[in-house]
From TrEMBL, chain A:
Name listed for the protein in its UniProt record: GPI transamidase component PIG-T
Superkingdom to which the source organism belongs: Eukaryota
InterPro entries: PIG-T
PANTHER family reported in the protein's UniProt record: GPI TRANSAMIDASE COMPONENT PIG-T (PTHR12959:SF11), GPI TRANSAMIDASE COMPONENT PIG-T-RELATED (PTHR12959)
GO cellular component entries: GPI-anchor transamidase complex
Keywords, comma-separated and alphabetical: Membrane, Signal, Transmembrane, Transmembrane helix
GO biological process, one term: attachment of GPI anchor to protein
Keyword Glycoprotein: no
Provenance organism: Zootermopsis nevadensis
Parts of the chain that traverse the membrane: 518-537
Protease is among the record's keywords: no
Extent of the signal sequence: 1-19
Lineage: Eukaryota, Metazoa, Ecdysozoa, Arthropoda, Hexapoda
From TrEMBL, chain B:
GO biological process: attachment of GPI anchor to protein; GPI anchor biosynthetic process
Protein name per UniProt: GPI transamidase component PIG-S
Superkingdom, taxonomy of origin: Eukaryota
Family matches, as InterPro entries: PtdIno-glycan_biosynth_class_S
Primary location group: endoplasmic reticulum
Localisation per UniProt entry: Endoplasmic reticulum membrane
Amino acid sequence: MRGALYASVFISFIHLFFSVTCVPQNDYFDEELLLKPLPSGHVFAYFQFTTIWDLESEATFYQHYHLFPRALGEIVGWYNVQELHISLTAGLWRYEHWGYPVHDAAPGAEMWAWFKEDTKNVDTTWRELAGALSGLLCASLNSIDASNSLNPEFTFQLPGRVSSRAVNSSYLRYATLPREIVCTENLTPWKKLLPCDAKKGLSTLLNAGHIYNTNYHSLGIHLRPVCRDSNCSQISVELRQTLSLVYDMVILGIGNQDFSIKKLFGIGLSGACPLATMSNIYIDTTLNETGASFKLSPPPPAVIASSRGGYESKFAVYDVKALGIDGMFNIAAFYSSPRVHGVNLPPVLYANRYIIGYGQEYGGIVTKVYNGLWKPLDVVYLENIPWFIPLYLHTLKIVANGKEIKPLLKRYIPGKARTRPYYLEVALRLPARSTTEIYIEFDYVFLKWQEYPPDANHGFYIGAAIITALLPVGRNYTGLPQDGSTISSSFNASRDGYLVQIRTETLIITMPTPDFSMPYNVICLACTVVALAFGPLHNMTTKRLRLKDEGGQNHLISLLKSAFKRSSEKKEKRS
Amino acid sequence: MALKKEETSDDFAKVEDNNDARRVYAAISFVVVLIVIGLPLWWETTDVYRVPLPYSRIAALDSLDVTLAMNISITTLDAARGDKLIEDLKDILKTSKLFQFTFRALPLEKKHFALAHSPEGLESGSFHPRKSGELFLLEVPGLTRFTPNHVMVGLKRTVYFSSEATAVKLSEVLELLLLREKSLRQMVAAMTTPTETDQDRSGRRRMPAAEEYDIMMTVVNPEPEKLQIDWDLPEAVQDYLEPFLYELSPLAGYTVKSQWLYFVTLNVQPKLVIDTSGFGHQHYALAEDLLPQIITPLEKKLASRVSRNPCLNFVVYIPPCEAAPLHIYTRQGVRVKGGVDAFLSPRWGGIVIHNPSHMVCHNSSVPEPKEYSPDTVAIMGVFLAQLRLLMGIPELEGISRVGQLPLSTVSLRQWEFDSLLRMRTLEQLTSAKLTLQSLSQLLGKISNIVINDAVGNSIYQVVDCVERAAHLLKIGQLDEAFNESKKAFLSAEAAFTDPSLLALLYFPDDQKYAVYIPLFLPVMIPVVMSLKNICAWFSGRMCSKHKLKKE
C-alpha cells in the first residue's frame, strides 16, 4: 500500500515538473473531489478547483490570462481587490451532526472582500464590485451596499494574510443576503470560470439535476494572495472554486447506504481535465473502522493515513490522470450491512440560535454556543443585524452554565436607519464543557412603504452570526490549513490551531406590515376631507346668509309632506 | 326675522355694508392664497428642473462652416516651374469644398540634397514639416535613379517628385492618398443622414471614435490534451502591438489584454479536400460564407464585465492536428490569396487560423500532447495589418507611377497619422453636433427630462468646443482642433447618456393629475366662482362712488 502511495506522489511530481518545463505560462490548475460518509448516514461531497497564478509584477496584474478566469480577474483587478470570498448556499450546515465543512458558509449569499490599501473610496468600490459580481454570478449581490455591510475588526483577520503588518479593517467589507435563493443559474456561470469549463474533468460531474436535490449545497469562490515561498518575497494569487454538497442517502439510496459517483452525480467520470496538474478523488474511509464498514470498488490505488490534531483519518486516493480512463469511470462504496449509522460524536464547538419574545413589540435573539472541550476556548462572536431591527446593547447578557460572564472585548457600532447595520463583535472565553447563551433584545419598527420587499408578509431575514475560533484539536475538522491550497495539503497538516468560522441559523421575523394600497387611500381620503372642510368654510366666510320669503319655503316643505303622506296612505291601504 | 323687517335705519345699513366688505375681503384672501400664491408655488415645486440651454447656438451648429486649412510648401529646382505648379494645383484643387489650400514656394536649399543618395537618406533630412497637417512637396531631380515612379510619398510629411511629374499627378496624389476629401465628406454625410448615404469601405470597417479602446488577444486551442501551444503571448503583444499603439496614442488610449481559451470549437464543419499537389495530402476547407458563424460562439467568452470601452478582438485559432491544415476558401471555391488564412470583421476585430506545422502533427514518435510553437511574426503581422484597418488607416488604391516608401522602423507614416487626425476630428465634431441636436430635439418632445447643472455645463462646453474646433481647423491648427473635438465628443456623449436625465421619465402626467384632481377640483371651483362676486362687488362700489361724486 505504501509503495502505491509513493508511486502516486511520484507521478504527481512528474506531472508538476512536466508542466513547469514545457508551458511558458505561470499558472497551475488542480481539481479535487473529497467524498466523506458522515456518521448520520449522509454523504458529504466537496469539489475544489484551485488555480494558482504567479503574477510577475504589479504592472501586468490581471492583464494576460491563461488558466485564471478572465471574467473574474478583470473585476478583481478593476476594483482593486486583494482578497475576495463569495458563497452562495442553500440549506443549513448541521455542525452537530456533520462536523465541520471545508468552507463554512452562511445560508443565502455571503460575500466579503479586502481591498488593497490604495483604494480611495471603499464603500463605492464595494458597491460597484458587488454589482459586477452580481452580473457575473447571476445572483442578487447588487443589493449589497453600505447599508448592509460591516467591517468587522477581528473575525476575518486570519485567512489569506500574506503580510505580517497590522491590518486596517477599514479596507474590509462583509455582507450577507440571507434571503438569496441559489439555483442552477448560479452554477452555470460558476462552471464557466473553470479552465475546462464543464467539458472535461471533475466538473463534468456537476449536473444541476443531481446537485439541487441535496440537503445542503454551497457554491464558493475564494480568492486570496498567497506566498510563493517561505519568506514571502513573491506573491501568487490563489483562486479556489468550491462546491460542497450533502446528500441524504436515506432518500437517494434504495434500502441501503451504498454510494457511488454515478449514484451521486448521475454520470460516471470520463477523465481528468487535461489542463489540470493534479486531478484526484479522495474518499474518507475513517468511518470504516468505527462505524459501518464499506468496500470500495475499484480498490483504491493508494491510501493515505493522515494524522491531524491528534485524530487519525484514512483517505483512499484515486489519481484520475493515472487511471487511464477509457470510457466511463465509477467509484462505488458497498456497505456490508444495510443502514448502520456510526456513533455521532458532535464537534467540540457548535451553536444554534433562535428568536424569543412575543407579539410585534419586544423581541430577543438567543445564541447558544456549545463548547465540548475540556478546557476554556476563546471565540469571537460577530452579529450582523440589519438597520431596521434596532438592538439594545444594554440588554446584552452572556450566561455560561447559569453564570453570567463578562466578554473579553466588545465592539459595537449602532446601526443608522438606511445607512448602516448594527455591528456587534464580542470576544468571549467559553468555560470548559459549557453551554453559553448570548442574549440580546431588539425592537420591531415600521418601515417606509417603499422599503418593504416584494412579498413583505413572508418576513424579514436576520443574517447568520459568525463564531470564530481556533480549535486546539482536529476532530471532525476537514478545513484546509492556512498555508495550503489543495485538499491534499490538509493531510497530515497538524498546526497549532484549526480555524473554524461557524455560521448559525438565519432568523426570520415578521415586521409590522401595512396594507400597501394605503398611500393612495390616504391621499384620496385626505383630499376629500380637505375638500369637504373647505367648502363650508369658504361659503361661511364669503357668502351672506339671506332668508328667502316664507312662501317658497312652505311650498317646498308642504310638497314633501304631501308626498310622504301619500306613500304612507298607500302602505296602509295594502295592509 | 323681526329684526330684518325693522332694518331701515342708516346705522344698520352701514353694518351690513361692512359685513359685505368683510366677506369680499375674505373671498379675496382665498383667491390670493390659493391662486396668487398657491398655484405658482405648486408649479414651482413640481416643475421639472431644467437648466436653460443654448438652443439657438445648437441649431446654428447645423450651418457651422467646417473648412480645413492646408499649408503646402513646394520646392522645385526651377523657381518658374514651381510657380507654374502652384498655379496649376490651385486651379485643380479650387473645387474642394472641405479644404482651403495655401501654397507656398520655398527656395531650394542645400540641405535638401545633402542626403539625396537614397530615398531613405532623404527621409532623415531636417526639412520635413513638424506641424501635423502640413505637407511638403519636394522635387528630387534624380528620383528615377531609385524608383521607376514619378512621385514617391515618404514616411514623414514630404512627397518627393521627379522633374517629369505633372501638376495633375501631384493633385491626384494629394486627393487620393493624403487628403482623402471624398472619403471625409462621405463619412460626414453618412453620419448626418444615415438613411441616405452609407459609409465608404474604410468607414464601415474602422472603429467608431472613443476615448479608449480595449484590445483583446485570444488564443483558441480546442484540444489541449493533444496539442500543447508554447507561445509567450504577453511578450508578442509587447514586441509587436505596443510600438504601434504608442504611435497611435495621441488619438486615444489603449488597453491590451490577452487570454487563452480551451475546448472552444468553431461550431462549423470544414470540408475535407484531398489535394495532390504539395507535400500535404489533404486539407480542410472553410467556406467564406461560414466565417460569421465562427464569431458568434466566441463572443460569449470575449466580453468584458467592467470595461466600457469598445473592444477590438484578435483571435488566433489553432486547429487540432486532425483538422489541420485548415484553409479559408472564397465563394468562388479557391483558396484565399496570399496564403494567409485570416479574416477581418468590421468594427469587431480579426481572426487568424494558424495551422500547426506538418512536422509537428505527423511526427508519430512524439507522444501526445504534442508541443508546438506558433510563428509569432506571421500572426502578429496579420494582426497589425488588421489593426491598421480597424483604426481607420485605409488601404490605399494604387496610382500609376506613384510609389510609397515601405514601412520599416516605424509602423505608422506621419501623413497617415495626420489623415487619421483629420478624419477623427471631423467624425467627433459631427458626432458631437448630432448628439446635441438630438438631445435638444428630445427635450422639446419629452417634458419630463431633467437637465441638472452638471449636464447643462457639459452641453455648454460641447457648444464652445465645437465652435472652437471649427475655428482651429480653419486656421490650420490640426492638433488643437483634434483635442477640442475630442473634448466636445466626450462631453456630448456624457451629457446624452447621463442617468439623471431619466430621473422623472417614468412619472407620467396622468398620474400627477390623478393625485391632484380630488384635492384641487373641489377647492378651486368655489374660489373661482367667488371671483365673480368680487368683481360684482367692486363694480358696485365704483358705481356708488361715481354716484356719490355726481351728487
